[in-house]
Protein 1
Amino acid sequence: MSRILIEGHDIVTVLGGNLIHDHINFTIRENEIYALLGGSGSGKSTLLREMILLQRLQSGQLKVLGYDLNTITPIEAQNLRRQWGVLFQSGALYSSLSVGENIAMLYREYTDLSTKLINELVALKINLVGLPPHARYLYPSELSGGMIKRAALARALALDPKLLFLDEPTSGLDPLSSRQFDALIRQLRDLLGLTVVMVTHDLGTIHHIIDRFALLGDTKVIAEGSLDEVLRIDHPIVDYFFQKGSHGIKS
Amino acid sequence: MQSIDPAVITIVQEALSTTVKCSGSWTLSHLSRVERQLKTLSPASSLIWDVREVSELDSAGISLYQITIREYEKAGISSTFVGANEDQTKLYHLLYPKAIEKTAPPPIPSWLYTLGLNTHRNIQGIGEFLAFLGEAFVLLFYTLFHPSQIRYRSIVAHIYTTGVQALPIIAVSSFLIGVVIAYQSIVQLQKFGADIFIVDTIGISLTRELAPLITAIVVAGRSGSAFTAQIGAMKMTQEIDAMRTMGFDPFTFLVWPRVFALMIVMPLLIFFADIIGIFGGMVVAQAESHLSFSEFIHRLQGALALKHYLIGILKGPFFAYLIAIVSTYRGFQVSLNTESIGHYTTKSVVNSIFLVIACDALFSILLTELRL
């Protein structure tokens, strides 16, 4: 069994007086593609934000790459942030910088490599995510939705992270692009040895590339495991989410 | 954590080839030294890269290797590498499936081209502003004939935010202006023993010129910038497109309520600034030359002709119109990137303050020529 990279234990989150997570537990192992699933408002994005240090939890323990996020020091947090890449739902590319500059910024801030090598690395990452070479000179407002996702992925991969967080990576993409994006994620996971944590609604993605997932609902983790394992569980939210019995995923 | 062994090369020169023994961690944060070291390499006819000792490798390490061998290839020196393990080879083929084609950055245009482009844009800008004004007026006349379309609630809401909520800052700034003018003139007037004329100075300069100008500048900074930012944010989130598709005209819903509200509110704010400013002058007059409040007011009735006050108030709607039209127009110009909101908000404030001052100068000339 491979190493555990992220571990949540008894997490409680209260947002604006609403209980979002009620003592939830989950584990994410090395080199797997793990998804947080659930209906709208089930707190999966909140959980993701907690993992990437954008939000604090009320109680419980959340460990990422061995660091306990409750007691992490600012220096350790900075260290941790360099070991992951985050892809936001809307891309969140800096709109005043071109795609190439968006990626190069990380190298300029965190390494002392020469401009020449940085240029090569930017070209490499752009090629890696399947963007055409001239895309590096374009500004985010000039890109299509699919290209924004790819550019944001290139930026997330800039520092060769071990962990990749994706917030709804295929939302807003057409089905073909979604499947291509899925294939890209899986290929990167296999070849770069990444661990991928994503929030998604896309049943296609769940079916094709997810190894394990946690299904959130009613402030709890209703089920955790692989698709086959979870589909065996008899629970109304599981039935609803996977549309069992209708045209959804067949077990 | 990573083993902190920086990337190192050892060079073994042989008769026909140079062997570069690579070791350590060829990763992003441990590369800078080896990058400098590689520049000093002076190989024979061919290079052999021995990578058996490399403990860690990432895309930065591979890139460095790739750009180095590419350069030597140009100089006719071929490279081969030995000892790569399976993972390293896989990574290499993922990153360099085929040669990455290079594209040149778009050329930097000449200054003449930029000058021409900017001139053209500015002329176009004037045209766009005229089109905006024209469209606004067409809709104004339309709503005048259909009074039920006037957004009264919205006007009232804007009167509250641009007027009522502006009272504290207007009070403070006009009080201080009154104080400053009184101090500056009282020193000069005392030299002639003409202290009593402080009333004339304060009364006329404030009501006719300073109160309207200060009010307009505060309103431009406060409400003008807010108008631009509000409309700009709506433009970015496609709310304005949504309104158009629902048949809600942005001019009737967004522009005219703001313009009307500001035109109603501005004369009132100027009146308020007049009172507070004169009060500021009164306080200084009493402190510095023992002119009591009642004497001051008695003198003011004789000294301040009604026309000065009316001219000041009359400027209000004109200033308000300029500020509101310019700032809403700038709001509609905001494009889809975050920087443009800041850009156009700045432009809107700068333009509206300039236009207010220009309009004030025009009033001065006109009214002097009319002997008012």
Protein 2
Amino acid sequence: MSIDPAARAGYVDHPPRMGFFTDTSVCIGCKACEVACKEWNAVPEDGLSLSGMSYDNTVGLGASTWRHVAFIEQSIPRRETPSNPAPSEASSAASAGSAETPSNPAPSEASFAASAGSAETPSNPAPSEASFAASAGSAETASSSAASEASFADRLAAEVPKGPPGQAILTAGRVAGGGSGGLVSTPQEIRWLMSSDVCKHCTEAGCLDVCPTGALMRTEFGTVVVQDDVCNGCGYCIPACPFGVIGRRESDGGAHKCTLCYDRISDGMMPACAKACPTESIQFGPVDELRQRAASRLSSLHEAGVADARLYLDDPADGIGGGGSLFLLLDEPEVYGLPPDPVVTTRDLPRMWRHVAAAAAALAVGALAAGLSGVRGRS
Amino acid sequence: MVPAAEFRSYYGRPVIKEPVWKVPEVPGYLFLGGLAGASSALAAASDLAGRPELARVAKTAAAGAISLSAVALIADLGRPARFHHMLRVFKPTSPMSVGSWLLAGYGPAAGVAAASALTGLLPGIGKTATVAAAALGPGVAAYTAALLSDTAVPAWHDAHRELPYVFVGSAAMAAGGLGLLMVGPDRGEPARNLAVAGAVAEVAAKSLLIKRLGPVGAEPYQSGRAGRLMEAAEILTAAGLTAAVLGGRNRVAGALAGAALVTSSALTRFGIFFAGRTSSRDPKYTIAPQRARAGSGRERMPATHPADAGRPASGDGWRNLPLGRGWLRNGPPNGRMAGHRRMSWTGMVSFEGHFPEPKIFSTQEIVVSRMAQGRPPTAGWRGSHRRRHRDYRRGGVVTVT
């Protein structure tokens, strides 16, 4: 059963809970969301530098970055399996040749379809989804036994030598593909993950729970918003967020974060980022509807053989009560910089208060005992 | 639980944000607040035991420490001119809110107690203030543990069971040590006893803490700057304990012991603070335990949020309180909350409904009910000429500064 945060905050007749569903399988990394958000909300510039993290020069969410597009390049040596033999000259030509058959995707997509074997099966799944079917080998196995073949992520985890602490990337392998013929030493499978990160507007929001001034509040849409004229910059919300979303802005001393375009949605418009997204990777709407859409998108991706696809923060039984923003990810959350199993800190607060009370009582009793213990010895 | 040895991250970037609190302001406040709270308790006990000199020293220490604390806390704010916003609301889900109210009561009490003791004026009021400060002091000393623990910082959150006892032991050690230093072991025996008890408690609690965190979780406390500070604190505690216990009535030994224990307490607070920072900078400490917990099968933690235990399905406003019984669990009997979003004259009283709203400020219920009907609250409502009508119709946020 899903909790209605607006009702719990005391709103009586309130609109449905609104949020985001970010389908990272269609994100193209254009960063229109970042630009639109900054423009609409007049968020100040917060750093112009090259980070070396693929195309991600924004680096992370913060007080002056409310949308952040993450880029992860992954490549692994293509594994030989009976349905996915090593591309010899002949089979490369064969896969290039077979790429023209009507049931196969275009040659450039065949190189991502990661199998010479898939050319043989007429019953290929939809071509555009096969390009994401980085699961091993052939389409014939993809739909019937996606679980039995190792997914891209599993093979990545097994094969890629880990770099500096636990990074999930990257060799500088050269890409093999249909028709390139002999230019590569080791054929590689390449995958480029892109995701637009945002405030999760948690059902159980740590930032909101710990704010001592009441600046952070729950709106009637179920979103979490900072009232800038109340915030005194104490900074408590910042370490309380399990996702590291909210930040304190140096220039004005206050805490800022995504408002889910409270002003726009109050007037019946879409948030700026959702409006600007060209592929509708960012979908906006009532959270119940978005959860259904996410579930159906997930099942269609699974049917197409994308075994790595998973939903994140869709489950009301998780550590934050589900998020107002849910995501469809193509790898584990930590690869995108998201915590794998976030739990709002307030869940442990009753126990914390009990220990504080016990410790305070112990101090009081201890001080009294210490005071009275000296009476006998007094000269 | 041993977290997974392997983990993946996004280019090694931190997952959570590290605290933006300033050094030395906030760790300094952790030390001074503990010193003050425990000193007030010691002062009241000394008064009871008939040791006026120790009582006077302890009261002065408390008042001085809490004044310095206030300066440090206000200086740490991003917008210091709005420090009074801390008293807009009372939110039990926020240790900082609870602490602000504790300090608001404790600070003046400690000040009056010290003033009365030093000048000799108004002894009756001074006694009342001493008792009040002694009642609130232990809370002041202990709540900062909840303040640090109630975050996503792994080194602090995972230590939430033991940290209150570390802080309280450390505070007792500091207060007793300062008394021992200023008054001497001859006339300051209660101080020495409190210091010894505090030191023993702190050492025990710290070792339990490190043990619970496990080899990986305890790394932030044992490596880097935090590790060096904690180690130095341990050495000073051991030295101070030895000198306090074995020194007898020797004035010099007592002074050395006192100084060592006070310094050790301060070093502990700084060490814990830096350990938290370290643990939030390295994604390993956040990701590895969570991945181990989640596993590959994505096992879920049960939804145990206190607000949802047995809450009424109608959602008419009242939620169960996780700690309390009686009216706190079921809400005030008159049910005035039902059907309206509460607003105080200062603006939105905004907590999540985990706890009922105690009436701290007068609530303009006529205003609220008019707004629920879609009418402007009153003709002369401050700022009404600036607010759009739609705000009132929806009961939108009206923030009155």
